[in-house]
# Entry
Amino acid sequence: MKVKIIENGPYSVSEDIPVKEVFSVDSHDGGISSYRVAKEHEKTDSPKFLCRCGHSKNKPFCDGSHVHAGFLGKETDNRKPYDKEAEYVQGPVFDAMDNQKLCAVARFCDRGDGFWNAFEYADEPALRKYAEEVGCGCSSGRFTLVDKKTGKKLEPELEKEIYLIIDEPAEHLGPIYVKGEIQIIGADGFEYEVRNRVTLCRCGESINKPFCDGMHLRCEHMEI
# Structure
């Protein structure tokens, strides 16, 4: 199961990877609580080509608009491993790793008083539960919780599948959420670090391609 980046073109997704369109579910207290599956695309005998420039008239699929739009999809991420860039923060119950450049503005961490408040006071059961939900549910993988006793990362078991996020509360299409340790291969053949949770840009405007940096929220062509 692989996602291959085509130079200045779309993402080529292996035919055996399930692709689903999902809505962001508003938590009604300042953030997002979960995703709701709206549509599951049928499996095919050949790869699916997902739009990467954001201008396709047949989203989420590519229709060749990247050519007319003059899309330049150069991969600008520095390709360093997550652990090498993430800030390590110690907490009372567990520690956290935070790689801010990966933030896709999914807003799981904005609910209530926010993730960092919950992390700092995680000895309170309700706040601990919320901190765990964010640490394990952050779609971009920006946050990772670490067990203080064992030093092991806390990661959910995710199916290998792709979520195409429709951020209805923000009235924009969101990124491509790649779940369950699927290999992403650059246009030059580079194999990116395999991670459990990754969000890929599909507006064409991220300054950290191929990863999402939240720029879709500023793009008129991503409005819904």
Observations:
- The helical segments are 65-68, 82-85, 115-120, 125-137.
- The chain has two domains: 2-78+159-222, 88-154.
- The chain has a mean pLDDT of 96.
